[in-house]
Amino acid sequence: MARKKTTSKKTTAKASKPFQLPNLKLNRLQEVIVGSALIVVGLLLLFSFISYLFTGAQDQSVLVELGSRSTETKNWISQLGAWLGHTFVYKGFGIPAFSISVLTMISGIFLFATGDKVFSLSRKRISNLWFWGLLLMLWLSIFLGFFHNTNALLGGKVGYELNDFLQDYLGLLGAILVMFFIAIVYVVLRLKLTPELITAYFSKKATEVKEGFENIETTDEESDWEKATVEGNPAPDIDQTTAPATATEEPKNTVELSDDAMQVTVPEEETVPEPVLKKVVAPKDENDIGMEIEQTLDEEEVIDNKANKLVEDFGEFDPTLELSNFQFPPLDLLKDYTKGKTITINEEELQANKDRIVETLKNYKIGIAKISATVGPTVTLYEIVPEAGIRISKIKNLEDDIALSLAALGIRIIAPIPGKGTIGIEVPNQNPSIVSMRSVVASPKFQNAEMELPIAFGKTISNETFVVDLAKMPHLLMAGATGQGKSVGLNAILTSLLYSKHPAEVKFVLVDPKKVELTLFNKIERHYLAKLPDSEEAIITDNSKVINTLNSLCIEMDQRYDILKDAMCRNLKEYNAKFKARKLNPANGHKFLPYIVLVVDEFADLIMTAGKEVETPIARLAQLARAIGIHLIIATQRPSVNVITGMIKANFPARISFRVMQKVDSRTILDSGGADQLIGRGDMLYTAGNELIRIQCAFVDTPEVEKITDFIGNQKAYPDAHILPEYVGEDGGTSIDNNIDERDAKFRDAAEIIVIAQQGSASLLQRKLKLGYNRAGRIIDQLEAAGIVGGFEGSKARQVLIPDLTSLEVFLNEEQNK
Ligand SMILES: Nc1ncnc2c1ncn2[C@@H]1O[C@H](COP(=O)(O)OP(=O)(O)OP(=O)(O)O)[C@@H](O)[C@H]1O
């Protein structure tokens, strides 16, 4: 989709460009060769034209014989020169034809000297040069056509004919006026000159000239004095103390060499006078005195000018340049589940449901003034307007009774619907339709979304595509009982981003304790994923590594804040815009910063095993990371209060809930019931802090995700995944201290577990002894120091050096007796 977007942008850009050099890719050697070829061609043209001015008349007679070896011409470039001169100067544009040779040479020099790196950035400039150069040539040629009778070579045949054509229709005066008008258009468009600028320029010049005269007068006096002092003579007629009056007024760098009054005066570097606005307030009456008001104008922001110049020369910084050939996945990779099937409106079903609702309410003496239905992909919303005097809470309490009478699950009553004066009853359709990812990605709402991180969740109850900006959320909490569509939801989020963002613009940090859900994204590691230095896999499946990654993200956050502070930007969007506009110097550590999206599946599992160690960095990130482009998506099966703590909840205003089994879970995640009444299979409720929106999540199946990741993974990638800052945890480094007294209280238990399992891993201890990661890590270090387990072996578990429990007993007893 984004590909479409960019191509459409490109075409509009192309259409507005006057002329564009072909986008050839040359290597450096080819550049030098092509560059020199252009220079030679330019020179050949130049010499031919110059020579033609003098020898053209003599060569006129032999023009018909050109091509034969025996033909002799006077042109410096012989037959070719004679032909070129005749074609371009005489039959062409006259003297202005010289610009062709000059333009060719300039292009050649550019390519030869600077290479494609600069050249490709300056293509726009060069194409501009050609466009305006050729236009100027044509204008001059027509203009010189007025003087055709003086010399036919001035404007060439083209100039003469076009001039003649103009004069035939407009007459001499008309033609002159038209030419004058074109010249004005040229000057205004090309040189961006306006009458104001010209007057400003001349008034500036006038003041400069005036100041110049005044300066000459003073410097005349000064130079007399200086001449005298440099020669060692006293200053003529000027007292030593009073002489440098001008010098004190205008400080000079004066070096006193000796007592003999020899002074060498070095004029100060030219200082740019501050532009000053002067205004004189005349005295009100005889007793009043006038006043002169001076106002210094704001200084020009040089940095902007420089940046504008850079942007003019090289264009805006393009972060996607390194993978400029990257292609966004085509829509065909997504399956169209709804092919040929639109939502079927089953009128019988609608009628039957309506009748039952009306009847049930009637049984409770609730009269209905009006009822209408909106059919969604999986649920139909019946909106009723009760008769006057009916209490809303009465209807709300009938949820179960209506569900019973309709014999359906997942009935939800919204009383009243916010913003409408109605009460909503959501009833699941008998034949729900799948919302395919393809249909939401292809929707104009997603395609034209001007968002930083657009996410197409699915379709609302009124069948509208629901697109939100993750950057604005700014973090998302997601819950749902097992099998209700959480993993599909995560895939839909990731797919949306893959369809809209270039690898340079967004990076994912994926935490997947289930080990199977997000593995497919491994293929796009070097395009879209971020990882810790030295870690083999980018997708984190080991809970212990999550802590390091989260802390590393905190470091990244702090670093980004420093960079943003330095650039005086309030958020990542501003910063990147400033960087693209070349207002930030990469030499000062500035670089284009991609968004980072951290996705944590099975958050409850993580909290169970690592507790505070995970919660603290997550809360920190959630509180602070929004401005610097780190966004969290956290999914959990169990939305209990000890998993989704107050601190986490407070920082995740945007929440999604798939079906949960209990009302209390719904309350924990959404702060209200409702999620327990959903029907599952992607039926979800979304809230961004205010009302609840019921959405049918888009369905994207594993084979589709596989196709997308294959498509991206097979393309040229960055050399490595995006590397996060290194984090050395508290447990970093191995303690070689084998101090028995300082051993952990659970040391012996741990040793036994390790020896029984014959596997030296900290996570085993964590599970069996219910320890935090840091403590388990410390015990492993102590076991290593004691010689019970071997050294660290990367991703493999450590070797256990004691074969069984009896040997361990002997080993530890011996150690005690030492
Ligand atoms: N949006 C959807 N549209 C249609 N069917 C869906 C949708 N989402 C999920 N399903 C169905 O529900 C099944 C389970 O979904 P999913 O694997 O996402 O559940 P889950 O909540 O992640 O479960 P678990 O937590 O056990 O991994 C899918 O295989 C699919 O058949």
Automatic annotation (TrEMBL):
Residues 463-667 form the FtsK domain. InterPro entries: FtsK/SpoIIIE/SftA, FtsK_4TM, FtsK_alpha, FtsK_dom, Ftsk_gamma, P-loop_NTPase, WH-like_DNA-bd_sf, WH_DNA-bd_sf. Residues 213-257 are annotated as: Disordered. GO terms for biological process: cell division; chromosome segregation. Its main location: membrane. The keyword Cytoplasm does not apply. Gene3D superfamilies: 3.30.980.40, P-loop containing nucleotide triphosphate hydrolases, Winged helix-like DNA-binding domain superfamily/Winged helix DNA-binding domain. It is a multi-pass membrane protein. PROSITE patterns: FTSK. SMART domains: Ftsk_gamma. GO terms for molecular function: ATP binding; DNA binding. GO terms for cellular component: plasma membrane. ATP binds at G480, A481, T482, G483, Q484, G485, K486, S487. The chain crosses the membrane at residues 32-54, 93-114, 126-149, 169-189. It is found in: Cell membrane. Keywords: ATP-binding, Cell cycle, Cell division, Cell membrane, Chromosome partition, DNA-binding, Membrane, Nucleotide-binding, Transmembrane, Transmembrane helix. Belongs to the FtsK/SpoIIIE/SftA family. This is S-DNA-T family DNA segregation ATPase FtsK/SpoIIIE. It comes from Nonlabens xylanidelens.
